[in-house]
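WARN no homologs supplied; continuing
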Amino acid sequence: MSADANEMRIERLITMAERLVEALEGDIAALKAGNARNLRTIEPEILRLSALYSREAAGLNPDAAKSAPAELRKRLFAATAKFRDTLASQTRLLTRIRGASEGMVRAVADEIERQRSLVRTYGPAPTAARPGGAIIYNKVV
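OK structure emitted
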């Protein structure tokens, strides 16, 4: 592949990484505001961009990146580092939100079970309440 083609590929990677960072930052802002409906990373366009970025990054020859001009290589490394940092930040935030959600569901389920399992003391003899129904939580986040 020619040097110009490699430089164009690196420029595309930088542009895609910057767009993905914008989407991730938008997700982080939406999650912090409690508005999960405004997540951009689940939009079809961003999903396609993510897949394209993955293919382009996997297809980039390390020697081609090393032979690129210093300024272009510097921009590529900066864009990649920012993308990784932003992705890690979003992942940490999603993990915290998922943990909190699962904790709330468990607390509600435990309270329901506690209330249903109280011994009924009225009637001819004390009886235990019948077991409560199952509560299902979808762990996909």
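DSSP finds four helices and two strands in the chain.
OK
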